[in-house]
Amino acid sequence: RAFAKVAGSTPMKLRVAGVGPELNALRALSLELQIDSRVEFVGHVSDVAGFLSESDALIHAATSEAFGLVLVEALSQGVPVIATKTSGAVEIHAATGQIVLSGQGDILGMASSIADLAKQPVDPHPLIESVRQYSAASVASQYIDFFQAVTGATP
Q1: Helix, strand, coil shares of the chain as percentages rounded to 5?
Q2: How far apart are CA 13 and CA 6, in angstroms?
Q3: Rounded to an integer, what distance in angstroms lies between the CA atom of residue 133 and that of residue 58?
Q4: Helix (H) or strand (E) holding 102
Q5: Per-residue model confidence (pLDDT) at position 147
Q6: Which of 5, 56, 76, 144 has the fewest CB neighbours in a 10 Å radius?
Q7: pLDDT in tens, 133-150
Q8: Helix (H) or strand (E) run with residue 90 in it
Q9: Quick check: helix, strand or coil at residue 91?
């Protein structure tokens, strides 16, 4: 619905990844909102990093999200993220400062964020740097530090 609000004023195309119980409803909604020519349903995506690297933004309108791995994946590819305020998005925003948050059901707010993003290119480097703490090497190091602190053992 947010994309429909800005579709007439931006050349952006909406690419919907994934499959699930809402897919048919989303297809019907794109027809109802008359944006079906600007929406591509790509289905299951095996190469998430590749898909994201070809994207101008990730619009994540989840109603709930425990952590939001896809948000970190997008930022790690230098892709700006606009997300609804789920616990995962709020946590990642607090840690990185790089996610534009929109209230649950705030279609106009999310549309405004999409329009702003379409007008103003984003430097990918701060996005990438902001999520280095979530890299496999960083997380492994944190686990090792934790276990060493708990056990008193040293390598």
Answers
A1: 55, 15, 35
A2: 11
A3: 20
A4: strand 99-102
A5: 84
A6: 144
A7: 888 787 788 888 888 888
A8: helix 87-96
A9: helix
Give CA–CA dist 150/140, Å, rounded.
15
Q: How do 99-102 and 14-17 pair as beta strands? A: unpaired
Q: Please, which pLDDT band fits residue 66 given cuts at 50, 70 and 90?
A: confident
115, two tokens: 């329009």
Phi, psi (deg, nearest 5) at residue 109: -65, -45
SS3 sequence, 38-49? Answer: HEEEEECCCCHH
Q: Are 53 and 79 in contact (CB under 8 A)?
A: yes
Alpha-carbon dihedral sign for residues 10, 12, 16, 17? negative
Residue with tokens 């800005």: 6
Amino acid (one-letter) located at 66? A
